[in-house]
Design brief:
mainly alpha, about 80% helix, flat, disordered N terminus
């Protein structure tokens, strides 16, 4: 049990949930309005945040970025008509969103209890806090359920194919709806069992103090925001 707790803490990283939320907003603005230099700086910052959360996550995001950027570059030398432009735009969009994904994944990996403790410190309404936590947790569950569906398809001899998009959609959509309903019931039961609706004072075993890493991350995010506004 102690080993699992330590592993979960490592995956979450050391940044405060409030820091992650603020950086998500700042990065979302910077990647669209900043110049190329700001973009590369933001990319490095978010990759360091991913590295702080998980080494595996860091390398996965490096691979996703490298493949997307490489495909965008290679397609520039291809001549497939309008199809080339479509794929270049698709990979360019992925590359542009990578910094946001980096922080978003770390936020999703963060324990819902830790995020809820953060919201309580900020005196956010309980209904808003629970709704946001359920949304973040549900996004993580969707990925796990899609993996279960894919494994079930392999066992039954079904295969997803881009050449048959309607059939592929049916193979994923029907079981996903059923699994989402099951997940929603589990989430409701978990909320009731943890007594979130109780209006009395609550405590948390998470250390919710801001650390040095939070200060450095926020300083870097605000500094890059200043550069973005200055150069725009």
């Amino acid at each position: 049990m102690i080993k699992e707790s330590a592993l979960k803490k490592k995956e979450e990283g050391q940044l405060h949930p409030f820091t992650l939320f603020v950086l998500t907003i700042l990065v979302s603005f910077q990647v669209f309005f900043g110049n190329q230099t700001v973009y590369w700086a933001v990319l490095v910052l978010t990759l360091l945040i991913a590295l702080n959360a998980s080494t595996g996550l860091f390398f996965r995001q490096i691979i996703v970025f490298s493949v997307s950027y490489g495909m965008m570059y290679l397609l520039a030398f291809a001549d497939l008509g309008y199809v080339t432009g479509i794929f270049i735009g698709l990979f360019a969009l992925i590359v542009r969103f990578i910094p946001i994904f980096n922080i978003g994944i770390v936020l999703i990996l963060t324990s819902p209890s830790k995020i809820l403790a953060c919201f309580r410190k900020l005196h956010m309404p309980n209904t808003v806090s629970v709704a946001m936590i359920a949304a973040l947790r549900f996004m993580d569950e969707i990925g796990l359920r899609l993996l279960e569906i894919r494994n079930g398809m392999k066992i039954r001899g079904f295969h997803a194919s881009l050449l048959h998009p309607i059939r592929t959609f049916e193979l994923y959509f029907v079981p996903l709806v059923y699994k989402c309903l099951h997940v929603s019931e589990t989430l409701v039961s978990s909320i009731i069992a943890k007594g979130i609706e109780y209006e009395g004072e609550k405590t948390s075993y998470y250390d919710m103090r801001f650390k040095f890493a939070d200060g450095i991350s926020l300083f870097a995010g605000v500094a890059l925001l200043g550069v973005t506004l200055w150069t725009s």
